Batch of 4 targets.
Target 1
Amino acid sequence: MINMTEKTFTLAQLAQYDGQNGQPAYVAVDGVVYDVTNSPAWPNGRHHGNQAGQDVTKALHEDSPHGAKKLALLPVVGKLV
């Protein structure tokens, strides 16, 4: 899927999307930013010790039992720069 209006996020900008106080919940994995706001696995922007608004690449590749396959179910909102 090609998104002509793809947003770019710095780590500081991504941190604003932590799922707290009504904010959307975004996470970055391998440079791609995903929206986990409506994912039941990410209530209040939290998932198994990980907080939205961060690059969770290391946790996904080292600690996740499902690896990257669940990412295909999430909306892509941009990329991490």
Target 2
Amino acid sequence: MSNITVKRIYASSEPGDGTRVLVDRLWPRGISKAKANIDLWLKDISPSDDLRKRFHAKPESWDAFRSAYAEELQGEATQAAAAELRALLRKGPVTLLYAAKDERYNNAVALKEWLDRHG
């Protein structure tokens, strides 16, 4: 069983969240850092600006986005952030936080799927 939860950053924090990690490149609009209650902001594990913008323009391209994002996650630029996230997961539950409105199709969901496959 995965100890990773995915949650919108606008939802209230809960004791069972464990370590709360923001996985967006940009700070979410309309929420203060105090209200966000995050433990870590891992910008480097978020999709590249180009990929994020392409997916935002064509949200129906979910499969293509997941594939391209998985490729980015295997790259050198994200290795330190991925290692940091894996270290947190060894210590306990982690909640991946995102700002997107779509709760089914967003980078945090894709990242959780990737982590579940690549531990």
Target 3
Amino acid sequence: MKKILVGVVALGSMTVAGVAMAGLPAATGVNGSLHDMTKVVTNADSMGRVCVFCHTPHNAQSNLGATSNAPLWNHDAGTAVYTPYQWVTPLNQQDAAGNTFQPQTGDEALQGPSRLCMTCHDGTIAVDQHGKAREQVGTTLMGAIGGGEGARADLGGDLTKTHPIGFDYVAIRTHRNAAAVVGDATGTEIVDPEQKFATAVDTTGTVGGTYNVVTRAGNKKIKDVLFQGNIMTCASCHEVHNKENAVQDNYSPNSLGLDTAKAPNYFLYAKETDSLICLSCHIK
């Protein structure tokens, strides 16, 4: 009987895993990616572990706050004072009822997974710091990672130079639609969250005065990556565990001297070619 139960549990686990990974190409994941600290930091972990820099099954961090949804987090919280991006156009600030569509405080900007991202990306805590049991202090800050990748990813606490996060995507789309901003058929410049990420754009057959015609043939919808179904976060563009969500095209010419088959993905849900990642949410 025990053997039967074990077999059923194992089969059930494989089924769940299959559903969870459905649609992802082979050879994706954290191992070997820019989030694999064992590849980018010398002697990052004495046991050669990969997931441990963010997660642990025991003795997880509890200093990120009850609302941070930290998944068994194993990394210290960042210590920067955060200044959020602020829109400058009146349309993006308040509606007639006084509803605000942009973060007013640094903490408000870091909703959902964004707070977890900044435990490394604000540049105040070493990326190779991790753990309670067998704790390893870590010495490598984000900006010190080789190849320039770390420097680009070292956001600091000044988020005014970074794509805004922590705002209500659904509300701002509705707000701009009500303000009759010229755009698609509904009068908005923000894509319906029911739409999928962009996979191609027609740049040859469009008529003057119209917007780009975008193909959306992927598996992921915009609403799927909004925190609580409506809040824009870091994870709305980046899926940190899978480096080949969208296989990037080669740079041409390869000005960075990359000796790889394709350009780095940075865990994006859409290609950077033709600005498909941008056109996934913006009608331009």
Target 4
Amino acid sequence: MPPACPVCGQAYEPEPGFYWGAMYISFAFSTGIMLVVGLAVYYLLGDPDTWVYTSAVAIVALLFTPLSLRYSRTLMLYLFGGVRYDKRYATRQ
């Protein structure tokens, strides 16, 4: 991958704090997933043993980890990236 866009010169490497911010967004996603799974187990199975909660949350968290990581970075880019696409830029040069 080239270090910058050949058309507009935009650098592809994000700022140093980008991955820290994406980590916090991923943490929020994981917390939400764990709360939803915990409540679903409670209401569907009627207050089972602790190992059932732990197993269900661990399995679902592992299954959703790739999506959580990808969408946390995407959300970070859209909210705080500060780069807007302008398709007319290539024709102005």
